[in-house]
């Protein structure tokens, strides 16, 4: 593996053909999980782990394998980002991904992507630049050194030289518009298309959560209005009883249809009672009727519970449960979006580094 390699290392020293892997997989899945000494066995060799040989866990099937059995070089263990065994790769579960290695010749440590660095450490960056400057074939002239000094204003800026590289025009356009995939190689296009598709779905999920949360906020206001109208209808004189209906809604519990007309009518409403007066008055009347005759059904229009909240334990806390569920979903989408955006940045950074290395 040379310093200029596009990939850190070949995944395996030799590849098995598909028929061989199919046979190996059949033997692997049918083999016993324990040996005659009741020791758990691992890998395709089905031997116990006695701590004497380097092993790695597959990110697909979560089985443990020996580096030797997977034909992996143990010296490259720190360069593996995600590992998929030969069976998971064969089944299409995933492919082993490698971290970019430090540019210093002989170093097998990964670079520091969080610093946009091509080196595993500042020390190795200095060594690489020193070797580059001292190389007879790439010796720096006085004009080269002057150009470096002219490019910075102070020592701190000089120290940052080499930690970042200029943004390529096609990368800049992609960041701004996201529609110039044809400017990239086919493999980069495929990765960006897949990631963009996932990002679009996640963005739709976030938008759906925002609509549902907006609806629930307005629904809570509507519930307060219903309870206040019930209290008003209870009559005057003496201390008024505080009313709070259950108002469990089967339609909301089963899922909020974000494209529904009534949902957006409530979200956009600036005067909820005026916009839903007929429905609210009917709910109040339903409660008053049931208050006079407890044998009457508690359901308004077969979906809304008008029982007194304190007398309805089966729907206890239903609104908070629905709202918490949407909030958890929104948090999950936010995490997924952040991870996908980081993956896009990684793809673009690796592409840019490849271009700059090719033009050295």
TrEMBL record:
Gene Ontology terms: cellular component: Set1C/COMPASS complex
Subcellular location: Nucleus
This protein's name: PHD-type domain-containing protein
Taxonomic source organism: Meyerozyma guilliermondii (strain ATCC 6260 / CBS 566 / DSM 6381 / JCM 1539 / NBRC 10279 / NRRL Y-324) (Yeast)
Location of the region described as Disordered in the Swiss-Prot/TrEMBL record: 1-20
PANTHER family: CXXC-TYPE ZINC FINGER PROTEIN 1
Gene3D superfamilies (alphabetical): Zinc/RING finger domain, C3HC4 (zinc finger)
Keywords from the UniProt entry: Metal-binding, Nucleus, Zinc, Zinc-finger
GO biological process annotation, one example: positive regulation of DNA-templated transcription
TM helices/strands, residue ranges: none
């Amino acid at each position: 593996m040379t310093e200029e390699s596009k990939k850190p290392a070949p995944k395996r020293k030799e590849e098995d053909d598909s028929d061989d892997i199919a046979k190996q997989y059949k033997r692997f899945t049918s083999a016993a999980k324990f040996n005659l000494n009741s020791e758990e066995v691992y890998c395709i060799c089905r031997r116990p782990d006695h701590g004497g040989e380097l092993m790695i866990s597959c990110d697909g099937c979560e089985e443990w394998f020996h580096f030797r059995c997977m034909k992996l070089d143990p010296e490259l263990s720190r360069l593996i980002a995600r590992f998929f065994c030969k069976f998971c790769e064969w089944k299409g579960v995933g492919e082993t991904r490698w971290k970019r290695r430090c540019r210093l010749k002989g170093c097998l440590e990964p670079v520091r992507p969080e610093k946009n660095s091509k080196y595993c450490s500042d020390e190795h960056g200095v060594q690489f630049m020193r070797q580059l400057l001292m190389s007879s074939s790439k010796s720096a002239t006085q004009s080269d050194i002057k150009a470096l000094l002219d490019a910075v204003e102070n020592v701190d800026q000089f120290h940052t030289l080499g930690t970042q590289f200029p943004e390529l025009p096609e990368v800049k356009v992609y960041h701004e518009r996201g529609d110039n995939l044809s400017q990239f190689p086919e493999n980069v296009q495929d990765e960006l298309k897949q990631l963009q598709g996932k990002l679009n779905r996640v963005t739709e999920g976030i938008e759906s959560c925002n609509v549902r949360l907006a609806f629930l906020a307005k629904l809570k206001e509507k519930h307060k209005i219903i309870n206040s109208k019930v209290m008003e209808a209870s009559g005057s004189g003496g201390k008024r009883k505080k009313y709070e209906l259950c108002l469990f809604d089967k339609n909301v519990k089963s899922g909020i249809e974000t494209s529904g007309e009534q949902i957006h009518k409530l979200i956009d409403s600036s005067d909820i009672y005026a916009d839903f007066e007929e429905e609210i008055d009917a709910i109040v009347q339903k409660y008053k009727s049931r208050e006079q005759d407890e044998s009457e059904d508690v359901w308004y229009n077969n979906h809304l519970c008008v029982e007194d909240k304190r007398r309805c334990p089966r729907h206890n806390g239903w609104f908070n449960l629905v709202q918490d569920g949407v909030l958890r979903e929104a948090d999950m989408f936010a995490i997924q979006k952040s991870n996908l955006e980081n993956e896009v940045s990684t793809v673009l950074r690796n592409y840019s580094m490849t271009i700059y290395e090719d033009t050295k």
